[in-house]
Every structure is written in structure tokens, then in C-alpha cells.
Amino acid sequence: VQLQASGGGLVQPGGSLRLSCAASGVIFSINIMGWYRQAPGQRRELVATITISGSTNYADSAKGRFTISRDGAKNTVHLQMNSLKPEDTAIYYCTGGTFHPDDAWGQGTQVTVSS
């Protein structure tokens, strides 16, 4: 499975970004996909997950601001991030797996929230 993330960038506090992740390869094995993030000097955090049936879960830090969605026809997962805060600054990784969302990892995309 190959995961290609895109959509990161620089945004002001309160702004929005939409991350996308395209899956290719042995995609029939992917039942759950997610987004992790890691800020400098901090441990990696699971931000959101979505199952093949569409069930979602969010970290407390993401609830109410982030929305994960899945386009099955295009094998793509999106993370819509609104009301961004400086503490959301991190490298965001797209992940996927059969029973856990961290079997396969994409290359990461930088999100910087700063004025």
C-alpha cells in the first residue's frame, strides 16, 4: 500500500486547510485510515480515523474542528481542518491498515499555523 498525502501549508490562526491522502497498491486490505501528527519535541498523536464503513473517531484536540472523510471511489481520505491554532502545527501523516490505522504510512505533509 502506498499513501500519498498533500494539502499542507502555512495558514493563519483561525484559518482552514484540507489535507488529502490518495491510496494505491493493495488497497483492498485497508479497512481503516487515519491521520497522525507530530510536532517538534512531542510524541506522535493520532488525530482522526475513519473505517471502511464510515465510522469516525477524533482526538479530543480535533473534535469540533476537524472532519475526516473518505471517497471510496477515489481511494482518498481527506482531513478538513478548521479554526486552526498554532498548537496544530506539526507534520501530518496519512496512515492505513487492516485492523489498525498505522500499518502503512505516507510521507507526511507540513502544517504550520502562524501569523
In words, what does this structure look like?
Helices cover 0% and strands 52% of the residues. The chain contains no helices and eleven strands. The protein has strands at residues 2-6, 9-11, 17-24, 32-38, 45-51, 56-58, 66-71, 76-81, 90-97, 104-105, 109-113. The model has no long low-confidence stretch (mean pLDDT 93). It has 115 residues and is mostly beta strands. The strands form two sheets. Strands 2, 4, 5, 6, 9, 10 and 11 form a seven-stranded mixed β-sheet that branches. The radius of gyration is 13 Å and the shape is globular.
Topology:
Blueprint: E1 2-6, E2 9-11, E3 17-24, E4 32-38, E5 45-51, E6 56-58, E7 66-71, E8 76-81, E9 90-97, E10 104-105, E11 109-113
Parallel strand pairs: 2-11
Antiparallel strand pairs: 1-3, 3-8, 4-5, 4-9, 5-6, 7-8, 9-10, 9-11
Low-pLDDT sequence parts: none
The biggest sheet, with number of strands, parallel, antiparallel or mixed sense and barrel status, is: 7 strands, mixed
The total strand number stands at: 11
Kindly name the structural category: mainly beta
What general form does the structure show?
globular
Bin the helical content.
Answer: under 10%
Q: What distance lies between the first and last C-alpha atoms, to the nearest angstrom?
A: 37 Å
**Relative strand content:** over 45%
User: How many alpha or pi helices?
Assistant: 0
Write down the overall mean pLDDT. 93
Provide the gyration radius in Å: 13 Å
Multimer state: single chain
User: What is the chain-wise order of helices and strands?
Assistant: EEEEEEEEEEE
